[in-house]
Every structure is written in structure tokens, then in C-alpha cells.
Amino acid sequence: MTASRWQQRIQRAEALAARHAFAAEILAFYVKLARFQESLYQRLERAAENKVSLPGLPELPELLSSFGPYLSLVAEQGPERVAAVARDLRNGGKNSWQHWLNDCWSAVGRPPTQPQEFLSLAFLQPYAEFVRSRVPLQLDGYTHSQCPFCSRKPGLGVLRQQGDGGRRSLMCAFCLAEWDFRRLLCPGCGEEDHKKLPVYTAEEFSYIRVECCDSCHTYIKTVDLSKHGLADPLVDEIAAVPLDLWAQEHGYTKLHLNLLGM
Ligand SMILES: [Zn+2]
Ligand SMILES: [Zn+2]
């Protein structure tokens, strides 16, 4: 069950990479990340099963012992700019990692901006998904724009068919929680005047909406599953790089960058 979730993302990334040359490098890197994330998730599950009554997080030793191999993987196989960041973090040494990972985990009020933050959040992502899946989320009546589990801003939106229209939800790019959110409402500032909430699409990704706000000048990309049922919102959002370039050229800032820092 768990394994297939990552395998589905990997297969989707490979299919998109074959179709979109401009995203091939970033998706190839994503596939390597996802393979690592899947194996980390499985180790975390095993660590949780075998836990003895240690103080603190039972999974922490597993996390710390996995960070070095992760940095080595990225240093050796990532795109050069990311590889250099991984080497720097690796050279920082083990003693600094626990503090650093804690900082990344708890920095929820300020979206990440630095390459080393994205790299570390991508490492922690399966752990966030692991912990979140073990906590019952009470989503009835939840109307906020930030993630109900980790309080981060949403990284993307998802549209699903409902009746004659579509139901929008927001998704956290870190712990992958998903929650309903009104369609005509800016998750950045609460603007609800539809004239100030333009939506753009491009032929190449006709099922991905760039949902902008002319009040706070932010945008998110929303994957419309009613138009493309095979899309994987997380992976398709990463692949649709030209839409980000377009939005940013037109003066919009992404509400929360994805874990590849885009
Ligand atoms: Zn979250
Ligand atoms: Zn806004």
C-alpha cells in the first residue's frame, strides 16, 4: 500500500519526463529522491514497530543515521547546484544535523527560501507524511488556508469533479495533508472578489490552473483531476515548470515553493 504510493509517483514522473524535455532533469532528480524517500519511509515504519520506551521520538536515530547517506546520494547524483548544497551540509558534520533538521521541521511560519532548506525538507517529507498519517485530522468545518497538520502554507491545489462543477482542495507540499477550500477565495490573503482572482492555463498543461490573486500577488497551481484523471497532483505540479516561469514573469510569487525549490 505504502510502497505503491511512491511507485505511482515515480512512474508518473518517468512518464512526464519522457513527454516534457524541459522537465526531464528535475524529474529524473525527483525520481531518485522519491526512491530514497520510499526506503526511508519503510525504515521509519519498522523503527516505529520495534520501538522501545526511549525518551523523545523513537524514529529520530533512524532519521539521523539516514541523513548522511541522503546527502551523499544528492552530492553524487543530483544536479550540480543541488549537489554543491548537499556537500556543504555533509561537510557541516553529524553534530550539526540534529539541530538543523529540528529547525527545518519547526520553521512553519516562514516558507523556505534557501536551497539547503528545500534539500532538508525533501529529506524530512516522508517523515512528515509518516507522522501525519498517524494523527487523526479533524477536518470537518476546517476553513483555514494553512495546513491542518503542520501549519505550512499550501503548496498546490487539486480540483475534483463534484456535481456540475469542481471541488477544490489544498495540499501541503510537506506532509501532503489535503483539505477542502472554497474555489473563489485566495489562500494567500482571503480575497474573494472573482475579478481579482484570475485563472490562467496553457495549452501544454491544459489541466493545470495557475490561480492568481491580484490583491496579494501570489499564485498556486491547481491540478484539475476532472480533466486529467491520470495526473498525480504532487508530481504534475513539479513538471509544469513553464507555468511557474510565466506566473513569476507576470509579477506573481508562489505561495509556497515545492520541495525542489520551484
Ligand atoms: Zn502540512
Ligand atoms: Zn491574495
Percent range of helical residues: 40-55%
Termini gap: 29 Å
List the bound ligands. Answer: zinc ion
Characterize the quaternary organization of these chains: single chain
The overall average pLDDT, rounded, is 92
| Principal-axes shape call | globular
Main sheet makeup = 7 strands, mixed
Order of helices and strands: HHHHHHEEEEEEHHE
Indicate the structural class.
Answer: alpha/beta
**pLDDT under 50 segments (min length 5)?**
none
What is the count of DSSP helices, taking H or I runs of 4+ residues? 8
**What is Rg?**
18 Å
Query: How many β-strand stretches?
Result: 7
Give the percentage of residues in beta strands.
5-15%
Describe this structure in words.
Helix content is 47%, strand content 15%. The protein is α/β, with parallel strands linked by helices and 262 residues long. Strands 1, 2, 3, 4, 5, 6 and 7 form a seven-stranded mixed β-sheet that branches. The longest helix is centred in the N-terminal third of the chain and has 26 residues, at 24-49. The two termini are 29 Å apart. The model has no long low-confidence stretch (mean pLDDT 92). The chain binds zinc ion (2 copies). The site of one zinc ion has 8 residues, from loops.
How would you summarize this macromolecular structure in one to three sentences?
The protein has 262 residues and is an alpha/beta fold. The protein is built from 8 helices and 7 strands, in the order H-H-H-H-H-H-E-E-E-E-E-E-H-H-E.
